[in-house]
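From the shared-data thread, chain only:
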Amino acid sequence: MLDNIAFGIVISVLFISLLVLFCVLLIKLYINKIKNYTRLIYQKDLEYQKTLNSTILETQEQVLNNISQDLHDDAGQQLTYINFMVENLKLDKPELQDALNPLSKSIVTLSNSIRSISHSLNSQLLVQESLFKAIEAEVQRLNTNIRIKFDFVFKGTRKKVFDSNEKIVIYRIFQEVINNTLKHSEATVVNVILKTEPFFEMIITDNGKGFDFNQSDEKSGMGLKNIIKRAEIINFRVAIDTVPEKGTTITVSEK
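Structure, as tokens:
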């Protein structure tokens, strides 16, 4: 009798143990399934965000290319015509030459600036040339701004190769950072450093007023978010180091 009871208890314990083990395995499988499903949703969301950001980028580039073409074809040609008229007037009225020379120089300077801006907006031209040369040329153009001194430093080899998307995105990030600096930083010196070894880095530092990233105003905050989103499209990362009244450093690099 006691043997039967003991045997029954053992059977019951084994049954309960198996039942608990089955439940544990079932819960683990369920948890893994949830994790995999969550991971899949997250991955799909990332892919969707990248696709959406890429589509927005393509639309922006098309708009910039159109503006570039309009500047070149309309404003550029109008300035060429005005300069032609001024030069003819100088020939017809030699006594006005001294008075018209400053106007001619201003027209030529403005024409060159519009040409440079047109080229910087045109992604098709950017793809055809070196990213490093494009950024260096833009820094040289920016140095015509008497309020801010721009310094350019290159470290590494210029043989670093970028695909078309990387070129466009990195250059647009550069433009976005500089635009934010000009609008908000109150800086007097901006340093642009490009490195290619051991990996690519673009470091832009200013001596401006800095800011609290978590409390930045809506416009500058949106600009920084745009920079981060652009970098994510090409799997680059952005580091923002800023302290109020102590300037800002923004680093864009390969992951």
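The mean pLDDT is 75.
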